[in-house]
């Protein structure tokens, strides 16, 4: 009995640093989940939804909810105003007949074992607009189609980047990221996501519906490329980075006439992942 007690005591002692490291982020998630601005916004739009987790994003907050026996992602801005909501991997049988008819008439077929369809709700004045995002798993490149509920297509549908991207967007990409190759352009609730190949790596550039730059994500970058000031702050706060399990992204965004930068570090931990955000000087972003 004493031997077992000693083992449990040692286990708790060894676990203590991990529990300490998780504390701030768990508290942040707890505070976000219980923030009355967030809870009231969720309840007013989706009565009965259960908040599972809240993550801070560049644009505000991503609220993961459980609603009608499915997971739903609601996005809010920094002022807690609703941006859009994603109902991912919905059943093909729940897609409106008008969308299915247009999809079929356009010459496409849907394979539920390989393809996906999402329902996206977003504000349109005082109304709630809806679009359906259909992703077809095809070779050599996936096809992404966007339909309104009446069956009409959104701009940005298809698989040919040159046909999707307006000239002003191509010019903006060439000016901001010389030498970048365009892989694909997808329609989002806020505008467009443009996948680029730049410096032997993939980057995701986001623009609004007026083709104004919002931000660019450079995902899964090498830990050795993170600024020393960020690494020092990260280490001094008691964290360690495991390149086999953890991820770090560099995000660029407009900051007046300049380009702002921050680093988003996601640590694969139990029972919940840790997400840390730093400015290049090592200071924490709120």
- How much helicity do the residues have? 25-40%
Q: Please outline the major beta sheet.
A: 7 strands, antiparallel
The total of beta strands comes to: 14
Fold-level CATH name of the largest domain: Nuclear Transport Factor 2, Chain: A
User: If you average the pLDDT, what whole number results?
Assistant: 83
What is the topology, as strand order, of the major beta sheet? 1-2-3-4-5-6-7
Report the span from N to C terminus: 47 Å
Q: Could you spell the SSE succession in H and E letters? A: HHEEEEHEEEHHEEEEHEEE
- As residue ranges, the low-confidence spans are 1-27, 159-163
What is the overall shape? globular
Rounded Rg: 22 Å
Number of domains: 2
What percentage of amino acids are in beta strands? 35-45%
CATH class of the largest domain: Alpha Beta
Q: So, CATH architecture of the largest domain?
A: Roll
What do these coordinates show?
With 286 residues, the protein is an alpha+beta fold. It folds into two domains: 32-154, Nuclear Transport Factor 2, Chain: A (Roll); 167-278, Nuclear Transport Factor 2, Chain: A. It is 26% helix and 37% strand. It has six helices and 14 strands. The chain has helices at residues 2-33, 36-45, 97-105, 161-164, 167-176, 228-236; strands at 50-56, 60-67, 70-77, 82-87, 116-124, 127-136, 143-148, 181-187, 191-198, 201-208, 213-218, 247-255, 258-267, 274-278. Strands 1-2-3-4-5-6-7 form a seven-stranded antiparallel β-sheet. A seven-stranded antiparallel β-sheet has the order 8-9-10-11-12-13-14. The longest helix is centred in the first third of the chain and has 32 residues, at 2-33. It is globular and about 55 Å long. The model is unreliable at 1-27 and 159-163 (pLDDT under 50). Residues 1-23 form the signal peptide.
